[in-house]
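Hi U.,

Before I forget, here's the chain from the pilot set. I'm dumping it here mostly so it's searchable later in email.
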Amino acid sequence: QAEFWRRIGVDAGCVKVVGQPRSDLWFQPITSEVDSLFTTKQPLVTLFSYDDTAYIPIERVAQDQFSWRVMKEQTHDGIAALAVEFPSSNFVIKTHPQQTDRHELAKKYNQANLRVISGSSVANELIRRSVVIVAFQTTAVIEAMALKRSVVYTNWDPLVEVLKDDILPLS
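Structure:
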């Protein structure tokens, strides 16, 4: 993490990595927050969404208009299609707390077994309860693997190869 922030221009003296606080919560009692999302308790699949330009150096966004938008939309549309095809499972698109398109996503992906939610407090519970985690460029991937969850890592955008030295080496 420190190397990533240094490479995108943050002064190394300003970066101190102390771990992933969410990992400390893995073994706390499960709350009812996830249960309240759906009327029927079913196997859960969670997509950890992200901002269109997450982990892209700011100068590349400005100069080259780099964005993950197409891959993100394909992933969201894929989850929505799976929710239709598999009504016996529940699906969550969990937006990043700083993600700006949460309300637009919630309007677009409104199905009985699909919810768009936000907030950092529920992420840990989603990882623990989900049978599959779908994600890109998040430590939730590592946490899900540590908890022996199935992970789908969405890194098919050609920009991944272009930015391989600027993004987290999860692939």
